[in-house]
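Progress report, Aim 2. The chain analyzed during this reporting quarter is listed below.
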Amino acid sequence: MAKPSTVKPGGKRLSSHNGTHAKASRADESRADDAPVIALDLPAATLSPQMAAYFRKCEEKLGFVPNVLKAYAFDNAKLEAFVAMYNDLMLAPSGLSKQEREMIAVAVSSQNRCYYCLTAHGAAVRQYSGDPLLGEHLVMNYRAARLSERQRAMLDFAVRLTDEPWAVEEADRDRLRQAGFGERDIWDIAAVTGFFNMSNRLASATDMRPNSAYHSQARESTTPK
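Predicted structure tokens for the chain:
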């Protein structure tokens, strides 16, 4: 027996079969949110041996290759430069913890409303902190987060540098010193801030799509209650 039809407002009939198709279509759209990676038609180049190895390492450690790397893969020189700069700023030894650097990335990206970086680096903050709320607060408004004096001074500086770079002066640097940051730390805060302002603009200009896997990462708290 055929399934009965339903009647939509206005008298138009919608069969259950069509409703199933509509649900499937919505699911397909959801799965396709991260494709294509960017809105520009830039064919991927053949990866250098170093970058091919790096992509394999990403697959092994993360389970996927971040779409930002795929976006740069049309030009090996640009890809290698991006990877080198990112790894130096975000992963190399610094007076800033990896979590603090990711917090800067999210606060800056929130000011610039960058979908890619808010999604990817919001997930990173959740992972490093073990606190899903912190990631959400920084995405929405870092001032709503329960931050230490050090963290608040760091993000205030990063946001000021993002919104009004011409207005940054010695008083702003002094606030960082008073919060415990050294001269090299101030350089690193500025460097991470500058990098993500550049990345935000490039991601927005090309409609760069974050990997769908980021959305569900680290949504359960691992911090002691």
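The CA atoms of residues 90 and 101 lie 6 Å apart. Residues 183-205 form the longest helix (23 residues). These observations will guide the mutagenesis work planned for the next reporting period.
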